[in-house]
Amino acid sequence: MSDKRIYQIGLTMINGVGDIIARQLLQAVGDAEAVFAEKAQWLERIQGVGHKIAEEIKNPQVLIQAEKELSFIEKSKIKCCFLTDEDYPYRLRECEDAPILFYFKGEANLNANHIISIVGTRNATDYGYSLSELLIKELSQNFPDMLIISGLAYGIDISAHRNALKYGLPTVAVLAHGLDRIYPPSHRSTAVDMLDHGGLLTDFPSGTDPDKQNFIRRNRIVAGLSDATIVIESAEKGGSLITADIAFSYGRDVYCFPGRIDDNHSKGCNNLIKTNKAGLITSAADVISAMRWNSDMKTSGKTSVQTEMFFPENTQLSQIVLLIEKNGEIEINELSLLAKVPIHQLSPLLFELEMNGIIKTLPGNVYKII
After folding, report:
1. Is the pLDDT of residue 309 over 70?
2. Are 332 and 343 in contact, with CB atoms under 8 Å apart?
3. DSSP string, 281-297
4. Greatest pairwise CA separation for the chain in angstroms
5. Strand, coil or helix: what is 205?
6. pLDDT digits 0-9 by tens, 142-185
7. Could you give the CA distance from residue 126 to residue 338 in angstroms, rounded to a whole number?
8. How many angstroms separate the CA atoms of 183 and 17, rounded?
């Protein structure tokens, strides 16, 4: 088998191996092909593997099924994106439970400069629908290349996708099933329109039904792809609250539109605000301000001179300062991508720069030159 994608897909089809164990296998062995080539006795010693999973890795049916999936995605012109690929979404890669591989059909830039997830109740009211349209309309006027992420479900999800298309923004649906079907079927025409103006994404192979547990699993991708998650209407319990909790656990911003205290459609949003898991917003301007996206600050050449004085031989620190200087204000995930430095290595460097009085930290893990 010469196509490495067979082994990458195969890694996702091993019974008992989820995304976290798959990462451990890759770290221990090197790449997906090596996982299948390694002896079972050695695989057993890897943390989280053991005898049973090692036997599952050696099951020949895994790679046979992977070959079938590769044939399907090639025929359907679907791309599979593996964790180590250069264009794997950098925001998603930082999440410890990010999918080791996902399937994507469409044209969207999953590393766009500004990405927002919009989620909410399936039983939206006119209030929720109007908020969705107004928010996206205002965002499109400020950021015509902003990517809108949602889940193609009834209510707020489909409203977000349709309004994004209406106002010229690319939009991506994260699905809880394989790309051989669309659920719900009534949203098929919108999904087709999105292929040219965004796309469809899933970490489930073809043949996977939209079972209940899959919707919970896909929410981590909705949260992980985005700079911020916005909840528009939610009851006291619901899938959008799970997405908000996941985004919060990732250290991403969460925002909610408030509602009346006696309105069941807004209890979830009000509780997120009340428990300080989400910021209160009333417009797109609030989002732009909270995310520090409205800065037009221009820096002088003074910083470059400071950098040379403090770090004459440390090119990595100098590069980071110059990137912050060039962007005016920059969020840590974007800086990590531009500098090609993982966040766990970047954080201590930023701390050093802050201690030396070169940069300043702003809300939302945003950095600027002093």
Report:
1. no
2. yes
3. -SSHHHHHHHTT-----
4. 62
5. coil
6. 999 999 999 999 999 999 999 999 999 999 999 999 999 999 99
7. 41
8. 26
Strand runs labelled E in the chain: 79-82, 101-106, 115-120, 147-150, 171-174, 198-202, 228-232, 253-256, 279-280, 329-331, 359-362, 366-369
- Assign 249 to helix, strand or coil: helix
Say how far apart CA 60 and CA 70 lie, in whole Å.
Answer: 16
Cβ distance 208 to 178 under 8 Å?
A: yes
Domain that holds residue 30: 1-75
Query: By C-alpha distance, which of 161, 144, 160 is closest to 199?
Result: 161
Please tell me the pTM assigned to this model: 0.78
Same-domain status, 122 and 179: yes
Structural contact between residues 194 and 172, judged by C-beta atoms closer than 8 angstroms: yes
Determine the distance from the C-alpha atom of residue 283 to the mean position of all C-alpha atoms in its chain, rounded to a whole number.
23
| Residue found by looking up tokens 């195969």 in the block | 10
Write down how long the chain is. Answer: 370
The region, left, alpha or beta by phi > 0 then psi within -120 to 50, assigned to residue 110 is alpha
Q: Are 89 and 208 in contact (CB under 8 A)?
A: no
Q: Are residues 128 and 276 in the same domain?
A: yes
How far is it, in rounded angstroms, from Cα 156 to Cα 173? 12
Q: What CATH number does the domain containing 214 carry?
A: 3.40.50.450
* 12 and 139 in a common domain: no
